[in-house]
Specification:
Elements lengths: L5 H6 L6 E5 L5 H10 L6 E5 L20 E8 L3 H4 L2 H20 L4 E3 L3 E4 L2 E12 L5 E11 L26 H12 L5 H11 L6 E5 L4 E8 L5 E5 L4 E4 L3 E4 L10
Parallel strand pairs: 1-2
Antiparallel strand pairs: 2-3, 3-7, 4-5, 5-6, 6-7, 8-9, 8-12, 9-10, 10-11
Length: about 260
Amino acid sequence: MDFLSVNEISANLIVDANIQIFDSLESTNTTAKELALSGESHGTVIIADGLTGARGRRGRSFYAPKGVGIYISIILRVAADVANSPELITISAAVSVCEAIEKVCGKTSKVKWINDVFLNGKKICGILTEAVTDTNGNLQAIILGIGINFVKVDIPEELKEIAGAVFDGEQTIATRNQLISEVLNNVLTKKDWNETLENYKQRLFMLGEEVQVETAEPYVATAIDVDERGRLLVRDENGEVHTLDSGEISVRNKDFDNSRK
């Protein structure tokens, strides 16, 4: 069994982190929020072996059985300029996960704007960034939640076409502890933003592709670039360029059909 261990995770850390492991939680983000409001410090990491009420962006449920995934939330005490642009944290986290998987597991993953990590055409990781405020509305912290499907497991039928795993049926060459350590090293190490953004662009698989933008009135466009804040630039069929800072897109190229979320 691949047991989670504070000692094994800490042994490979090059950053300061207060790691707390739970057998099961409803949501690591919820627990991290509570701890942030109680005064827990920057770099506090909540890890659960399994989740009973996990959710992703837009309140979607997230299948998180015990023993096969990585479910972590990190308390970040950040400067106001970063807090006002949470997409910067999300993008940096996506790059951090990709780099960790490549180093520890020897696999090259891609990113679907803005925060999903894909391997072999299937989603293996979701990222959820949430703000924590006090009763007066003052920002206290940012909670960075990361969920990674580490090994293949029986999943609900409706997820089989889109969900994969880092190790999708083959022999594992790493442990969850090792991958968690590297993700934390990457997330909690200060990075050059321009370098991170360029790395992010290189890993986006939809740039240059035709996409459908899911707004109140959906439209077809071509994804052309990502700006300095991580917003997606798309050119519609009339030649007009739109800047997207949220929302859903799906790639229309048939080769990317299983990247839809």
